[in-house]
Amino acid sequence: MTDSDDQRRSLSRAENLRLTRMPSLPPRPGTTGPLRLPVEETPAAVPVRAPARRRRGGLLIGLVLLLLAAAGGGVVYRWRSDAVASPAPSAPTTFPAVEGPSLIASPAAGPGRDPVAAAASPATPSTAPSTAPSTGLSSVPAKKPQVTGKVNASGTNLALRATCTASGAEADGWLPKYACDGDPESRWSSAFSDTQWIRADLGTTWQLTGVTLVWERSYGASYRVETSVDGKTWTRLYVTSNGHGGTEQIPAKGTAARFVRMVGVKRVSSYGYSLLELEIR
């Protein structure tokens, strides 16, 4: 056996080993048995593609990132637009006080403030007096309503229908009612002391025109005549320290009163005060 035979035999063995490793191809028309490709016609290795699920996930992630970037740009753009459209808040305008002293000093004009308003509102408080009417309570006491009474147009002696009382009486024959009965023979005689009084209650308030005192010999050297609407608060109608007795007429000038009294201060004798009549008109 020659060297060429040995080489041919080695080539046949290597070729058979290679052909057994190649995949079988379908038989061509008109042939039988598997078709084996020659060594020169073996196709190149095809690159392996990634699974379709992995590619689809990557696309979704890229789309989400793109949407987020677009949304972020819109928010920034809108914020900037609003910031440009909205004017900056201006400083409040201070108006000058119209009346009364200013208790709060207005700040001077400065950056961001209205110079006209700052000039109109000085920093120092105003001391100009207020000309507006006061709304507080008045210190002047309110006047009491004026009391009016019935008019005694006929000039009747109102003491005849009055109830007369006194501080005391000399005895039962000289009670205070006898000075209000219209009888010049009867009289009221007080106790024998300086401080004595006789009072007539007219029953209602009248507009008085005058009071008449008809004295007996024991008269008052010093006395006063007073009137009252309620019997508690008394107003002096007449006062004297130089009584002369007899008939003394005291003008009332329309004084409104329900009660009239004579208050003796000093007697002219050692006896009491003695009144024949107390007339009230």
TrEMBL record:
The keyword Membrane applies. Residues 1-38, 102-150 are annotated as: Disordered. Residues 142-281 form the F5/8 type C domain. The keyword Transmembrane applies. Residues 117-135 have a biased composition (Low complexity). Keywords: Membrane, Transmembrane, Transmembrane helix. This is F5/8 type C domain-containing protein. The chain crosses the membrane at residues 59-79. InterPro entries: FA58C, Galactose-bd-like_sf.
